Every structure is written in C-alpha cells, then in structure tokens.
Amino acid sequence: MTTPASELSAEHVLLIAMIILGAGALLGFVAKRLRVPDIVLFLLAGIVLGPQVLGVLVIPASSTLSWIILIFGASYILFDGGATLRLGVLSRIWISLLLIVTVGLLVTTFVTGWAAHWVLGIPITVGLLLGATVASTDPATLVPVFKQVKVREKVAQMVVSESAFNDPMGAIVTFALLTIVVGGHSGVHIPIGKDALDFLTEVGIGIGAGLILGYVASFVIAHERYGFLIEYLPLVTLIAVIGGYLGAVGLNSSGFMAAFVAGIVVGNMSYVGLKIPREHEARFTDFVETTSMISRMFIFLLLGSQVKLDLIAVYWWQGLVIVAVFMFLARPLTVLVSTLIDRRARWTWRELVFIAWTRETGVIPGALASILVADKAPHADVLAAMTFMAILITIIVQATTAKWVAGKLSLLEDRPDRG
Q: Using an 8 Å Cβ cutoff, are 69 and 300 in contact?
C-alpha cells in the first residue's frame, strides 16, 4: 500500500467521529423502521455529507485516518463474521468454497475485464485490471446483511466465508495485472505458477496467524484454570483482531484473513475444550455486535464520502453496462463453475440463485481502487469510477433486496446469531 500522505488535525478527527456516530445512530434507527440493511443508508448518507455535495464529511482517501477506518473496521467485522460461522457447516461446503475463491474469482475477472475492454475501449490488460479489482466480494457488507437477513445457514456461511477468503486472491491477481499494465506489456500472460505460490503462501500464513491468535485469545479468557483475562474479554477481542492483522501483514500475508480465522477459532472454542462462562456470553455478544455496528458506520459513511460523482457522471452508461455484465453474467457463471461439481454440498437451484444474487462489492475493491489511483495506474480514474459504480449499485440493489429474494426462494429461517 502507498504511504498515507494527507493528515488531519485532532479537532477535525473528533468532529468527523461525532458526525459519523450521530448520523450512524439516526440512520440505524431509520433502517430498522424501513427494514433495510443499514449499510445502504450509511453509504447514501456518506455521498450526501461528502465533499462533492454538502462538504461536511471530508476524509482524504490517502489520509492515515481513512486507512485506519478501513483496516480496523473491516478486520473487526470479519472477526465478528468468523465468530458466527460453524465448522460443521463449513466441512460440507469446503469444495465449493475453495473453487469460488480461486477459479471463480478468475472467471469474474475475465468476464468483467472483457466487458470493460469492449465498452470503454481500454486495453484488455487494463480491462482485466478492473475485473480483478471488483472481483472480491465484501465481508464488511455481507456480514451485516446476514446479521439482519436470516437465510439458510449453509448459504449464509458460504457467502460470508467467500467474502473473507477471496480477499488475498483478489489482491494478488490485481497486483499481478498492475505489474503487467505498468510494465507496458501488450499481452495478457500472467505468471500463474508464481502467483499461485504467492496465493497459497498468503493463505497459509494468514490462516496460521489467525489460528494462533484465536487460540491464545480463547485460552486466556475461557480456560478453566488459566483464563485470567475473562473479566477483560472485550479487550481481548480487540487485541486478537489488531494483533492478528498486524502479525499477518508483518509476514506479508492477509491481515483480513487472519482476523477472520481468529474469529472462527473464538466462536468455535468448544472444539478444543474451552467455553466462556454463561454469565459472560451476553457481554461478549453485545460488545462484538456493538463494535461491528460502529465499524460499519465509519466504513460506509467513509466510502460514500469518497465516491467521485463527477467521474460517474461522465461514464455512467458505460458503468451501468459493465455492472450489469458483472452482476447478471459474471456472477452466475462464477457460481455455476464453482458449485456444479460439488456433490457433497448438495446445493439446490434456489440456493445457487441466491448465492449468485448476493455478492455485494465494497471495502476491499474500494481500497484496491484507491491504491490504483495513488500508484497512477493507466486509466486509474476510469477504473476508480467503475469500481465505485459497482459498489454503489450492488450495495443499493442487492443488499436492499436480499431479504425479498430469500423469501421468494423460501430460504428464510428463524435462528439465533450465535450458538
């Protein structure tokens, strides 16, 4: 990542925090009344409050504050999402999950990339760079959606897990293509062997860091004899998230994956003989859910404030075409390629339709687009505009209709968040 350049005064940071928390609390209340995911309203409010409309919420994309919000917020939301997953469910869908975060991500990259090449008239390598940038699904979006929309557990955990595990693959493919584009190569050859090895290394280290931090956190809060930090359980979750992220990044791996895996370990600590005393369970759940809610307020108000409306106005119709291909061609094809050979998961057509519809784009693609702009990649402004159109459209359209689509497909269920 590029080094953040713009800094903000302490007073400005406090003002921003007050605006986000105040707007977030009000919009959260409105979202409950309207029965829509709160992230939709957060994103739209960010656009209105941002520098291109009211100018109340101004956070430069290159500032330290912007990166802190994105990194910590996405990491904690991932931790929360991981804590809700159940290993018994994942064991039935691991083949589909492995395929969709590898082969499936490449399918999305190539289909979207070719569409961008033809519609925008940009070089094919630049089109593929856009495809790779938007190919990652977004945990910061999907975890909150599935908190509010209770669908069949197998489906929810497939989509949430995909959003965590395809982050390193999406980043690797994006940076591999960026190297090609900046290097001026006219072909589309990608050094598959090296990138595959990089991907496996990132995944392995990220999972390892998450396992270690998650187990240590579980041990010091839940061990019958040595759980001496049980009274500080909320703080331990913060340490696990930040430590997991920094540890993995320090080893050149995915910090987001480490945070997600740490959450899985903490949420499934009973598998290794650890259990939080009943009197502390409610406090743990309340703290994690409250911190996740605050994180998504900051993330989506921030993302909305950084949307470049002037660029979207220039490329609006091209963006609509590309996003339509992205949603209605690339995603269904990705799901089919990734799930049809997996007999163990026993997917139904209703489940596959819902998975194909639910693939919101957000934090990770937004961060990658910001990096392309900061690194002055060819056509970076156009790529950023297309990426933010994908973020806006998928969040507004897909997140808002997720419950309705799940109901039509008979996938809604009544079940607790944790347990």
A: no
